[in-house]
Write a structure and sequence with these properties.
With about 260 residues, the chain is of the alpha/beta class. It contains eight helices and seven strands, in the order E-H-E-H-E-H-E-H-E-H-E-H-H-H-E. Helix 1 crosses helix 8. This is 3-ketoacyl-ACP reductase.
Length: about 260
Amino acid sequence: MNTFELLKPQPGLRVLVTGAASGIGAGIAEAFLQVGAQVFICDVDAAALDRFTAKHASLHGCVADVGDPHQVDAVIERTREALGGLDVLVNNAGISGPTGPVEDLDPAQWERTVTTNLNSQFYFLRRAVPLLKETSERASVIAMSSVAGRLGYAFRTPYAATKWALVGLAKSLAIELGPSNIRVNAILPGVVQGERMDRVIAARAQALGIAFEAMKEEYLKKISLRRMVSVEDIAAMALFLASPAAGNVTGQAISVDGNVEYL
């Protein structure tokens, strides 16, 4: 086989992407579809899910709140039924969480952020790992962390805390699951173009009492390449990590961020 052919995920790869009706998750799902994978997605937004699945006849999906372990169990069972097994779990679902000084944060918002960003990945892993062991010879797990999982992030402590935790989760599981030939890696996106990032910038601008455009410029100044990354950049990394070319890549926290220097 040509060495560069290893960069292509194998045809028929069975992939589950969580939180995938829009944004990064949708970009990853579409990328896997384009290389011939079988893809199942879930999302809490029923309308967005309907719009996205309507665009892709071969895409399987269902509505689910990833913070509810019973609903997660149902997603795994439906994935098994639809795909006949599982090769790749992309634990992507997450929320931005609240913005503000730690003393002003609502405990309910903290708990919701932890449940959605961190606990949900555990809920999927506890059900998906047995399926990966049972049905796959090319298994891998991709945990979606963030640049906020390697840098401190003032006024966004709930979000940052969960994203740091996901790096620890990925590195620990890489050791645990390595003997079963399951690779586990984390992707750490930086400042990603799109509506979600605009909302984050707007919330931070409000917290600091400055204009949106000034806040956006501050974000770009912190990036060595002075530009945001795209959803396609993140999807390309996910494809690589699921490909034979990454057959010996595990336990890594890989930033796709233009080198964010500080937050």
